[in-house]
């Protein structure tokens, strides 16, 4: 049985990640079109996925949600490294390859960013993207993020070093954006 809906939009629902979702998560995170953009270079077996679920998803240091469209899981999104004192967090997400280009990631990001500012009282949300991931850069910019800088050769992915582009969005920028 899927987890309860946490946030709902027009085309996606963000719901809790449950043990029943682990098979989907393991299958998708081992897809090269997913693991490369999120910076993984080793496969995850079922036990490792369960450990990620227990250590990260079930931890109180972030919000980790399943992105669902028509009740079908299509990806994940989360606010990681939430620092309540500094009122900041980092946005992370991926959408399964077969669901790319449908706007699910953009809608999910808007829902979670709004929740971060409105409900968690965040002042700043950051995100990072590898240099080759133009689709993710466009997604962040469409939500209102601004590229703030580049860390050179930060990760070794798929046989080569990659730059990391850092993006940021401040609460007042989010509130002033055009709807």
Structural topology:
Blueprint: E1 5-8, E2 13-16, H1 22-29, H2 32-35, H3 46-57, E3 63-69, E4 72-83, E5 88-95, H4 104-118, E6 124-130, H5 134-143, E7 146-157, E8 160-170, H6 171-176
Parallel strand pairs: 5-6
Antiparallel strand pairs: 1-2, 2-3, 3-4, 4-5, 6-8, 7-8
Could you list some keywords that capture this structure?
179 residues; alpha+beta; Aminopeptidase; 8-stranded mixed β-sheet; 8 strands; 31% helix
Describe the structure.
The protein is an alpha+beta fold. The protein contains six helices and eight strands. The chain has helices spanning 22-29, 32-35, 46-57, 104-118, 134-143, 171-176; strands at 5-8, 13-16, 63-69, 72-83, 88-95, 124-130, 146-157, 160-170. The protein has an eight-stranded mixed beta sheet with strand order 1-2-3-4-5-6-8-7, with helices on both faces. Helix 4 packs across helix 5. The radius of gyration is 16 Å and the shape is globular. The mean pLDDT is 88. Residues 12-173 form the N-acetyltransferase domain. InterPro entries: Acyl_CoA_acyltransferase (IPR016181), GNAT_dom (IPR000182), Ribosomal_N-acetyltransferase (IPR051908). One of its GO terms (cellular component) is cytoplasm.
């Amino acid at each position: 049985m899927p987890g309860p809906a946490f946030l709902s939009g027009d085309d996606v629902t963000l719901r809790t990640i449950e043990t029943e979702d682990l098979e989907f998560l393991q299958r998708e995170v081992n897809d090269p079109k997913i693991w490369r953009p999120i910076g993984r270079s080793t496969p995850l077996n079922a036990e490792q996925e369960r450990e990620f679920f227990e250590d990260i998803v079930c931890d109180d240091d972030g919000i980790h949600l399943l992105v669902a469209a028509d009740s079908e899981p299509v990806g994940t999104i989360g606010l990681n490294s939430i620092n309540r004192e500094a009122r900041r967090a980092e946005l992370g997400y991926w959408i399964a390859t077969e669901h790319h280009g449908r706007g699910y990631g953009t809608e999910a990001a808007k829902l979670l960013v709004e929740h971060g500012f409105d409900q968690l009282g965040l002042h700043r949300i950051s995100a990072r993207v590898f240099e080759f991931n133009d689709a993710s850069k466009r997604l962040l910019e469409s939500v209102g993020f601004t590229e703030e800088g580049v860390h050179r050769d930060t990760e070794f992915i798929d046989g080569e070093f990659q730059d990391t582009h850092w993006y940021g969005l401040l609460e007042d920028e989010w509130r002033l954006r055009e709807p």
